[in-house]
Every structure is written in C-alpha cells, then in structure tokens.
Amino acid sequence: MAALSASPIAALSFRDGSGAYTKGQVTSPKTSGTTQLQQSTSGSSQTESTSTTPSQTTHIQHSIRNGDVSSIGVNLGGWLVAEHWMTSAADFWTGVSDDEAGKGEYTAITKSASPDTIRSNLANHHATFITESDIADIAATGINTVRVPVGYWIVGFDNHDPSGAAEWEHYTNGTIKYLDALITDWAKKHNIAVLISTHAAKGSQNGADHSSPCDPGNPHWSKYQENVDNTVAMAKFLADRYKDEDAFLGIGLLNEPNGSTDEDALYAYYEAAYAAIRETSNDCVLSVAPLLYKQSPDVMTDFMQAPTYTNVWVEWHPYFVWGYEDTSDYDLTNTAVKVNFQNSVSQWNARNNHNRLFIGEWSFATAGKFSNNQEGYYEFCQAMVDVMYQAGAGFTFWSWRIYGDESGFNAWSLRSVLRDDRLKKIFFSADPAARRQLDSGYSIRNGETTSKGVNLGSWLVAENWMTSSADFWKGAVNASQGEYTAIAEATDPDTIRSHLDYHHSTFINESDIADIAAVGINTVRVPIGYWIVGFDDSDPSGKEEWKVYTNGTIKYLDALITDWAKKYNIAVLLSIHAAKGSQNGADHSSPSVYGSEFWGSYSENVNNTITMVSYLADRYKDEEAFLGFGLLNEPNGDTTTDVLYDYYEQAYTAIRATGSECVLTVAPLLYEQSPDVLTDFMLAPSYTNVWVEWHPYFVWGYDDVSDEDLVNTSVKVNFQGDMTQWNSVAGHNRLFIGEWCFATNGKFENNEDLFYEFAQAETDVVNQAGGGWTYWSWRIYEDETGDNMWSLRAVLRDAKLKAILFPDSSNSGSVTTSTDSSSDQTQLQQEQQQVQQSQKL
C-alpha cells in the first residue's frame, strides 16, 4: 500500500560613534568607519550548514537522559527492519509479490524463490540506506536524537528456542555491525543520542509488517514465554553492549504492542526487562508503551514511577491519518489536534510525579487532507508541533528518509519536509517556556545551537547617544567623546562616577535578563572596558588611567554570569569594547585621546588586554553561562593587522592555558570586513572554538541608495553574497554577526511594507551565520514608548518585527514580563482520540 502524504502546495557599514534612531530616520548619523565589502557572488538562497565535530565537554545524550534537554529527533525507519511501503523500489523486494512484501521482511525472505539473493540485497540496503553522511546531515539541522528500529535477530542468537526452529537465522546475518557503527562512531562524532526501538520482537507483538511476523496479522509474542524471555535477553544484551557509549540513550522496550497481546504479560515484561538491565549497572532510558489502542493519559499513570524506578519514559505514537478520513480539514486542526491531542498531553503533564512522556513516532502525514489549502496545512503542522514540544522527554519524527524522496514532497520523510522552509521553521519552533535546552553557554559553544542574541550596550561602557538623558552626563564636557573624557574633564568627577555606578546597577538588572529570555533569546553580548578587572599590571608610566573610571563594576558582570544568566539559561559573550589605549578612537572604546587609537602602538596596551582576557577567562571558566570573548571590538584606524593578529594568537594561548575552552571571536580591521579576510586564520583542528565576527549596518554610506536598492541589492545581493561566500569556504570558522540592527539612514519613511521586507531580508541573511548573531542593542534611554530600531525591546513591541526575528514566538505583545504565554494555556479536559492502527500508512 502506498504511503499517504500531505503535499504542501553587501555593502556593509558599521556602528562607530553616536546616534539615535527612530523607524525611518537617523537623527545623529555616525560617519566614520564605513566601507563596502566586495562581492564575488550574489547568491540569495540560504546555504545549509555542514556538521562538524564540535569541541564538547558532554555528549548531548547525557543531558537528555538527565532531563536537562528534551529529544528533538527522527526515526531511522526502514533501515534495520525493512518496511515495503518505505522501500518498495529497493532491490531486495525484487521477485517478491507486493502482497508478500507487505507482510514484512520474514515473509519476503522465506517465500522467495531465492532467499540468499534477498539477504544479499538487504545487506547492501543496510550498508547504504543510512550512513554517516545521513547522521551528519541530521546533526546539521539541529536534531539531537535518532530512534532506531531493530529486530530480535540483530543480536545473532536465540537462547530461548525449545523447538529449535531457529527462525532468526532466516534474516540477514551481522546487522549489528551497523548499529555498532552508529552508536560507537557516527552518533558519537556528530553529537546525536541513539534510542534503540524493539520493533520486531520474537513472535511479533502486533502482527504488523514492521514487526516482521512469521504469521502475518497474528501477534504470538505474549502467548509463549520463550518469546518474552528472548526479548528480555535481547534488551539486556544490547543495553550491556552499549552501556559505556556516550551516544547510547536507551531502549524502547516494545514498539506498538497490539491485538491479542496480553496486557498483564506486557507489563510483567517491562518489569523483568528493567530489572535485567539495571542489574548490569546500566541507568539508560527505558521507554514503555501501552497497548496501541490504549494510548491515553489514563493508562500507565502509576506504572514504574520514580523514585523506585529511574529513567522510565512512557511512549505514544499519535498519527492523524487513520480514522480521520471523514474529518474536515478545519476539525482535524482545531479539534483533533488543538483540543483532543492538546488535552491528552496537558492531562498527562498535570499529574504529580508523572514519568516523562515521549512521542516516539508522529508525522505531518494526513488522510489526503489540505490538498487545496496550503495555509491550512501549515496551521495543522504548527498545531501538532506546538503540542509535541510539551512532551517532557521530547519526540522523534517518522522518519528520516524514504526511497524516492530525493525530490518532491513526502510528509513521511523529514529530509523531504525540511526542504520546505515554512515547515523547517515550524519543526524547529518551540515556545521558550516549554522548551528545555542544554545550558546555553555549553550548547552554543559546542555547536548544537546558534546564538540568537542581543547586546547589553552602554551598560558597563557608557555611550552618550544611547543614554544622553542620564544623570552621569550632566556637567560632563565632551560627553560624546566617551566615558573617560566625560569623567577626566569634569569639574566634579566623583559625582559623575557616583551617577555612573547608579546607572550600572539599574540600566540592566535581573528583570531585563528575564525579559530577554522570555522572548526566546539565548545569548547576550556584553561590552566591557579594560578597567573592569580593577588593576593594570602593564603600566610602566604609572599613569593608572584605569583608576579614572568607576571602581568595582566587575560585581555586575559577576551577577550576570554566575546568577541571572544561569537562572534564565542565557549564554554570555564578553566583548572587549574599550581596550587600554583604544583600538579605534571611537567613543565606545572610551579613548583617553578622542579619535586616536594607541592600542597597537604600545606593547603595554596589548599586554594589558592579554592579561585582562586571561584573568576573566580564568574567573568564569567553570560558569555554565559563560560563552566566551569577543577579543577586540571593531579595531580600526592606525591599528595594524600584524599587531592585531599576533594579539589574537597570544590571547588564545593565554586563555587556553587557564583550562578554558570558551569561544573566542576574532574581528578583522573594521574597514576590511569581507569574506576574503581571515579565511585561513586560526582554523581547526589547530585552534578550537574560534569564530570570526562581523558588524554589518545599513546606515552610514547609504544616503544616496534608494529604498528598493537597499533591500534588493545591498541586502539580498551584496550581504547575501558575502554570507554565501564565507559559508562556502571549506573548513571555515563559524561566522558571528556580533552587531546589527534594523536602523537605516532615513529610509522607508513612506513605505512601511518595504521596511518590513528590508527587516525580513536582513534577518534571513544573519540567520545563516554559523555562530549566530546579537542585535544592537537591548535598550536605550527613553525607549519605553515609540519606535527605536536601536532598541530591541522597542522593536519587539512591533508584532511584525517580532515575528520576523522570532518566527516561533506565539506572543506578539509586549516584553514587559518574564513569563511566557504557555503559562496561560487552558487545561483541556477531553481525551485524545486513540490511535487505531499500527502501520504507518
């Protein structure tokens, strides 16, 4: 029977001084440091990332097992247990009638005129259908788990066979080598957790083709104790074989038990398998499934619970295919999913001490629905995903691939689904409050997640244009030249320092971090100055210029990294904005001589910066929220590349000497930011966790560019071309967009729709950066009302801009609270419709 499917009908400039912006206008343009990147390509399509071996401290499997992370996964269906509907074009079905093939692998082999030929072709299928390249592709999408159906014959023996029938010998021999390769090599290398699913138990637990029954349609598993004992022995053997493997998550103890399978025997088996596996000191995850027709929140509610049992998940397989043939498109989405399915998951989660729920199989397939309603189909898919993410253990989509899915659309094939950009965004969407992730500082560092962040600009390094109404600028001379000049030339420096300290304690506080986390942001970039460490061991002149600044500001950084960011799961990247001597002469580097950059002219300045980053790296190296450093913000002017690049090398060595493997971003000279610079600098494997940082702004240098050309040429061609070129370089370091925003120089005043197109285009490109991005900036004085494109909290009050930046966010309102809309979900009372069939078509 054929599978059912639901077919879905630069020129860059950089922040460099002072200015304030409201949508459509820049009132104080910043003029220096503007350059254009030369384009070698104009590609406008998003390039897919490739999976690399990350430098990681802990495999993701441990975090899933411990409950720090939920599975976002996919099944490797049709690989080690063949299913005809998924692989009908494969050679191993040749010579077998569709009727016999549809009964499963055992029947196909035993009824064939040439069983050895089928077994030989099956061996080739096992070797080619899923390979390491598939696991790399899976990892590259952001998936963290694969579920692997296996049959009892995989272990290569049957010690519970009193009849001596040796039925397991009919199957292809030696398939365990592929499971070994997956768990001990591929999944380990690509940071993917592996859950083994007992799909085909001896005797068959459901009679369906995917259980490869000897007597198709009839489940004999629970009728004979030898079958149950064989399954216990199989589970114990596999658990013991892989118990020390980082990638091994656990075992689904029995897939879709159904039909005449005895419930008492089923539950007794789960207990026996649990005891046998735990006897080997193996605490892997074990999922237990109710009888297929009893999947509901009222079944297994008090079965094998903690603390008596550990790491037991309850597994469901909700499909919206069978039994929904006569359901309208509207009711399928709004009743079957949004009411019934939502209710089932809510009811399960509402119980005290419930085992984690795992959605082991599901898909976007329907019974021929939405054929003329593409938007309705997307709404259906989004509704499903919204509920899936509420399962405490996570989910695995059925399935990764199907024969013939290389083109077109097939809702059973995730690699096909992900070619649809809308479905890809839907699949990887999650309400922040409902999503449990690995601590962001680690997961971003290890490449499991990219940064979607914001700068905490003008907090610990003051910028007058962002905070001009603050008390600490009152009485300051030449405030626009930066913090040092404002203090050093003031008639009352102590008063300015006192007001600055108050600013540090109030401009950013824990409530800001809570609000930032609530919108789905996972990273903050924090500009700091060299004085934050409270000393200068490289000061032969004895000027002690660092003492001009407010003392003790490191306490605010400590609070952010050790408390607030840890609590709200936000990664922190420190940016060296103000190096001793100034690396660019701009106000945000707080130069002692405005407009002059002396950092690279004197070795004491460079040495001071190395000491500073080494000190901070050592201070925060064991903090979960600490992501790393931007080693120097926007070096410019007279700073030379020789001095700059040598500093990066020395800083890297000093930081790694502390034992810290944190991220280190390296920026080219501001006027040299292009995909032709730093392409072969500090690359892996000699260097680890090095990112290259750019700051693309579409403000300065675009005065004479039309609104249309700004969108269609500057962004969609030039900026996209740079991004594509960078990502196409083999072995490239990850690119990080450390600063960018929606500000323009007076554009789009009379064309709001084109402004939104500009914002979408810009976002589409920055989302392709392998290290992610941080928007400039979180807040500006007096941004509580109105539009200000330099303030992200103001931007997010615009529902359209919020949807552009965070398309998976369901809350289009204000970001004035740190709770998410998921807390307002109604606790529905109706039960989910039971899944009535066991086949996947």
TrEMBL record:
Residues annotated as domain Glycoside hydrolase family: 128-402, 506-779
BP terms from Gene Ontology: cell wall organization; glucan catabolic process
Keywords for the protein's UniProt record, in alphabetical order: Cell membrane, Cell wall biogenesis/degradation, Glycoprotein, Glycosidase, Hydrolase, Membrane, Signal-anchor, Transmembrane, Transmembrane helix
UniProt-annotated stretches for the region Disordered: 20-64, 809-841
Pfam families, alphabetized: Cellulase
Subcellular location: Cell membrane
GO MF terms, alphabetically ordered: glucan exo-1,3-beta-glucosidase activity
GO cellular component entries: cell surface; extracellular region; plasma membrane
Membrane-topology descriptor: Single-pass type II membrane protein
EC number: 3.2.1.58
Entry similarity comment: Belongs to the glycosyl hydrolase 5 (cellulase A) family.
Protein name as catalogued: glucan 1,3-beta-glucosidase
